[in-house]
Write a structure and sequence with these properties.
CATH architecture of the largest domain: 3-Layer(aba) Sandwich
Oligomer: single chain
CATH superfamily of the largest domain: NAD(P)-binding Rossmann-like Domain
CATH topology of the largest domain: Rossmann fold
Number of strands: 11
CATH class of the largest domain: Alpha Beta
Number of helices: 15
Number of domains: 2
Strand content: 15-25%
Bound molecules: manganese (II) ion
Helix content: 40-55%
Structural class: alpha/beta
Order of helices and strands: EHEHEHEHEHEHEHEHHHEEEHHHHH
Largest sheet: 7 strands, parallel
Length: 384
């Protein structure tokens, strides 16, 4: 079997390192072609020595010499800078680009990979949030496929596999509810960074963990689902399911519901996306119904967790609003992690940006880039 050649953008993060675990279990199927990291040169060097990619990119240019020197005895090309990150995906030898970058930084590299007709294993939901309509158009034009890595969207994708386009009626997007499920706004007045980072089921990077605690993650995922599966907002139902066993479900026009289940382990959707259309045998831990005798479901609390409501608002308004939502969220999450602002204040600031930032009805990529810049500058002035 010809090995699939994989480029991992963001190989030192949570998804990137788990993807490398998946690849090392299946060296007969997958080969690492490109690894990229923003700052973590130490881990990037270690990964490069182990997986021997064709090339690596360290985005932080100050770390180029260190990476170059450490890999000088290996046949590995070393690049640095944001332009290299955007260009590297165009290499002919790449089959699949796993986009595991955090946030908005994933947008331009993903667009380039799509323009080169690559298969995208998408772990960077923010790209679809910011530019969903443009991305859809580019995928059609360049015949690029997006296979979702996000566990909920992987679940939906798997449930829809083999179904006709007109058979889908509704998507049930499940949410764990995060560490603050069941709390009210009063309870959340003084929550700390540490409490917000303590996710009950999933072990993830800090940005997405705060997004899960604030339910912004689910808001972003509603927008991601809309663009991935071409469904209207009213056909996406968020269901809080604290055990995170059902990763999402779909309802068909005949009333049948199909769900995808499993233990919460990101290696499963990562492997599915890399291996698609094949299901690849593995030795990962297995789910047992008898270890999970109780699966429960509840409605999300939109009053306490305003971010979910704001996400609906942004996508309904359309244009550059989801881009504003995303940029504002990235700034406030960063500020919360630096203990500059309180947990509840995050939503207030996002709401403020949605009202104040210049609205663009039909944004181009350039418009979105300036919306992102404008939103960050506006918020930074308020916060710092
Ligand atoms: Mn998810």
């Amino acid at each position: 079997m010809r090995k699939k050649k994989i480029a991992i953008l963001g190989s030192t993060g949570s998804i990137g390192t788990q993807a490398l675990e998946v690849i090392s279990c299946h060296k007969d199927r997958f080969e690492v072609e490109v690894l990229t990291a923003k700052n973590n040169s130490e881990l990037l060097i270690k990964q490069a020595i182990e997986f021997q990619p064709n090339s690596v990119v360290i985005v932080n240019e100050n770390k180029y010499l260190e990476v170059h020197r450490s890999l000088s005895n290996h046949n590995i090309k070393v690049y640095s800078g944001r332009d290299s990150l955007e260009q590297i995906v165009s290499s002919d030898s790449i089959d699949v680009v796993l986009t595991a970058l955090v946030g908005y930084s994933g947008l331009l590299p993903t667009i380039n990979a799509i323009k080169c007709g690559k298969t995208i294993a998408l772990a960077n939901k923010e790209t679809l949030v910011v530019a969903g309509e443009i991305i859809r158009g580019l995928c059609t034009k360049h015949r690029a496929n997006i296979i979702p890595v996000d566990s909920e969207h992987s679940a939906i994708f798997q449930c829809l596999n083999g179904e006709g386009e007109s058979s889908l009626e509704k998507i049930f997007l499940t949410a764990s509810g995060g560490p603050f499920r069941g709390k009210n706004r009063g309870d959340l007045l003084n929550v700390t960074r540490k409490e917000a980072l303590n996710h009950p089921n999933w072990n993830m990077g800090p940005k997405i963990t705060i997004d899960s605690a604030s339910l912004m993650n689910k808001g972003l995922e509603v927008i991601e689902a809309k663009w991935l599966f071409d469904v209207s907002l009213s056909d996406i139902v968020v269901v809080v399911h604290p055990q995170s066993i059902i990763h999402s479900a779909v309802q068909f026009v005949d009333g049948s519901v199909i769900a995808q289940l499993g233990i919460p382990d990101m290696k499963i959707p990562i492997q599915y996306a890399l291996g698609y259309p094949d299901r690849v045998k593995n030795e990962f831990a297995r789910f047992s119904f008898f270890n999970h005798p109780e699966l429960t479901f509840e409605k999300p609390d939109l009053e306490t967790f305003k971010n979910l409501k704001l996400s609906y608002l942004a996508i309904e308004k359309g244009g550059n609003s989801p881009c504003v939502l995303n940029a504002a969220n990235e700034v406030v999450v960063d500020a919360f992690l630096k203990e500059k602002i309180d947990f509840l204040y995050m939503s207030d600031l996002i709401e403020n940006c949605l009202e104040k930032i210049t609205f663009v009805e039909k944004p181009t990529i350039e418009d979105l880039v300036s919306t992102d810049t404008e939103t960050r500058a506006y918020l930074n002035k308020i916060i710092y």
